[in-house]
Amino acid sequence: MAEEERRGRTTTEVVSEELQERGKELTQERLDTNARREVLLRVKDLNVTLFTEDGALPAITSLSFEMRKGETLAVVGESGCGKSMTALSIMGLLPTPPAKVTNGSIELSGVDMVKLSNEEMRHYRGNKIGMIFQEPMTSLNPVMTAGKQIREGILVHNPKMSKKEADARALEMIKLVGIPAPEKVFKSYPHELSGGMRQRIMIAMALACQPSLLICDEPTTALDVTIQAQILQLIDRMRDELGTAVMLITHDMGVVSEMADWVLVMYAGHKVEYTLAPELFTNPLHPYSRGLIDSIPSLDNAVDTLYAIPGNVPMLSEMPKGCPFHPRCPFAKDICCKQAPEMLPVDGDENHLVACWKYRKGWGE
Q1: For residues 284 and 104, is the Cβ–Cβ distance under 8 A?
Q2: What is d(CA 42, CA 39) in angstroms, rounded to the nearest whole number?
Q3: Which of 47, 77, 176, 327 could form a disulfide linkage to 103, CB 3.0–4.6 angstroms apart?
Q4: Kind of pairing, strands 213-217 and 245-250?
Q5: 17-51 b/e with 16+ CB inside 10 Å = b?
Q6: Residue ranges of the ABC transporter domain (predicted)?
């Protein structure tokens, strides 16, 4: 396509036209693979409320999704959309007070974790579910060596294991995540390690007990580009080798396109679009999803000014009536301001759900 023809066209327009057929092929491949996988995590109608001086504020509203063994689900959206709150809900680490799960269920292998006590959740946390937090320097204990921190988690879930065996297992994990001079790093404190090494230690800790689900909350924040790529490749390799399901929380759509099988787009605590990654990038339907993709710089289109979604994510105390995105949406009509749309399939496609009035009967009338 000539540069004159590309100029002024958005990323979604270029990708949709040139890669839609390939996207359909990849989508079908992912669906065939998913059919052979067992459901691991099922979140249904999850509501999380913050009880504050300003009243009860809805942090997450009617969130539902599934994850299968060995697949990667990307949860995307701007800061303040409820991505990390979703992860903390699954881990049972919500800051209580003020946060509380007020409705819904979080089932891991058939067990509803919302109903478990704190003591019961300890058997799942680290053992069945691992988590890599955003900033490793604040997540690691500054007065414990890296090896001891990995060993601690192993011993908690394997009380009959000796310290010598746990040390050997911790050293094995350090080697597994590709850290050079593992024996030296084992005895090093967090401040003696680089940002990339600290993040690898966090991954080693999260995977030490071989959890069936790994939650990665923006695992490459504040790392340089080459280290980011290495960390993401490492997470992907661990998924392939250990069969771990990965929930990747990010606002980097480039990372999503490379790693994700399914994508959950969140806005202001609401699920607005849920589909397979190839389908989202070649056929994004919700105006917010399109805005996120259009804001990615692309070599395939030429625009004078990179697209930016106007406005900001609303404060929980100032949530608009109707569709939460309508104040920023270029297609908003009266019904968008009055009533929130349901999450429904588009054109009968159960693998592509969107919450938008634009795809309901009578919109164009």
Answers
A1: no
A2: 7
A3: 47
A4: parallel
A5: eeeeeebeebbeebeeebeeeeebbbbeebbbbbe
A6: 41-293
Say what the alpha-carbon torsion angle 301, 302, 305, 307 is, to the nearest 10 degrees: -10
How many Å is the maximal CA-CA distance in the chain?
Answer: 72
Between 133 and 87, name the one with better pLDDT.
87
Q: Which residues contact 218 (CB under 8 A, 6 or more apart)?
A: 134, 249, 250, 251
Which of 191-195, 250-254, 278-282 comes out lowest in average pLDDT?
Answer: 250-254
Tell me which residue of 23, 11, 19 sits closest to 300, measured CA to CA: 11
Strand order across the 55-68 sheet? 55-68, 39-52, 99-108, 111-112
CATH of 17-128+211-280, one of 3.40.50.300, 3.30.2130.10, 2.60.40.10, 3.60.150.10: 3.40.50.300
pLDDT of residue 19: 67
* 145 pLDDT above the threshold of 90: yes
Structure-token pair, residue 43: 């979140």
Mean pLDDT for the stretch of residues 286-306 = 81
Q: Which amino acid is at 267?
A: Y
How many CB atoms within 10 Å of residue 170?
28
In the chain, domain spans: 17-128+211-280
270-276 and 262-267 strand pairing: antiparallel
> Are residues 206 and 130 in contact, defined by beta-carbon separation less than 8 angstroms?
yes
Q: What is the pLDDT of residues 167-184, one digit of tens each?
A: 999 999 999 888 889 999
Side chain identity at residue 160, one-letter code: K
pTM: 0.88
